[in-house]
Write a structure and sequence with these properties.
single chain, 253 residues, alpha/beta, Spore Coat Polysaccharide Biosynthesis Protein SpsA, Chain A, 46% helix, globular
Length: 253
């Protein structure tokens, strides 16, 4: 079944890569099975990862490789991928993390939901197994609490899951204004700012597993500090938009 084209809707996958190489072929093979083009964005990875990316491109003809000269963080890589998707005529992009934590078998469900509601951001609601670190699950609850305040809503069930289908034009419009954080807090910020812009959300379950040899770039003190700073900025951003957000909230009722 062809999933990449329906009327004027075109979908590609965007995968930010920074020193994650173990699952690259697995992800590329899955995308190929769903006839999805994959835009892999190398965020200035090490030589070993670059070699695996090169081999992957030789094995899979539907892969597009973008190489960044400087490490800008996950957000910078995703934005480059979204801009590339737009320039290639794709209307939507499914973001997939390169560490293969997400159950990619749900891709058809997400793409069906996106075709049914093309103006929506279709995002993953994480279903954790026993491998999930406790600190991660607690941190998500805290973030989701603050996101509810920053959006004056419960529309965002989970703001940190990196498995999501973006409407490309909306994201590229946001990118022209710049983001406060292009690293670990990016996933949160783009959700809140898209919500401020009136983009509706739909959440679907996706299983998440933490593998024993998985590479994590999350730095406990540094990144939690940055996420806390982001929530402060988003809170004041909400206050500046308070009238608009309240008007929208009461209009829904």
């Amino acid at each position: 079944m062809r999933l990449t084209m329906m009327e004027d809707i075109r979908v590609a996958a965007v995968i930010p890569v920074y020193n994650h190489w173990r699952a690259l072929h697995k992800i590329a093979k899955t995308l190929e099975s769903f006839e999805l083009a994959g835009i892999f964005v190398d965020d200035c990875s090490d030589a070993e990862t670059k070699q695996h990316l090169k081999l992957m491109c030789e094995d899979f003809k539907t892969i597009i490789l973008i190489t960044r000269e400087n490490n800008g963080g996950k957000g910078a890589a995703v934005i480059d991928g979204l801009k590339a998707a737009k320039s290639l005529g794709y209307t939507h992009a499914i973001q997939i993390d390169a560490d293969a934590q997400h159950d990619l078998s749900v891709i058809p469900d997400f793409l069906k939901a996106m075709r049914d509601k093309p103006d929506y951001l279709v995002a993953g609601f994480p279903i954790y197994d026993s491998s999930a670190p406790k600190i991660r699950t607690v941190g998500r609850r805290i973030t989701n609490f603050w996101v509810a305040i920053e959006t004056l809503s419960m529309d965002i069930s989970d703001a940190m899951c990196g498995f999501r289908v973006y409407p490309v034009d909306k994201c590229c419009d946001l990118a022209s204004d710049g983001f406060w954080d292009y690293r670990m807090a990016f996933d949160i910020e783009i959700f809140v700012r898209l919500h401020w812009g009136g983009v509706p959300f739909l959440f679907l379950p996706v299983k998440i597993s933490y593998f024993k040899d998985n590479i994590s770039h999350f730095k406990m003190f540094r990144d939690n500090l940055k996420i806390s700073r982001l929530h402060l900025l988003l809170f004041f951003g909400m206050l500046r938009r308070l009238t608009v957000l309240l008007r929208r909230k009461f209009a829904k009722r």
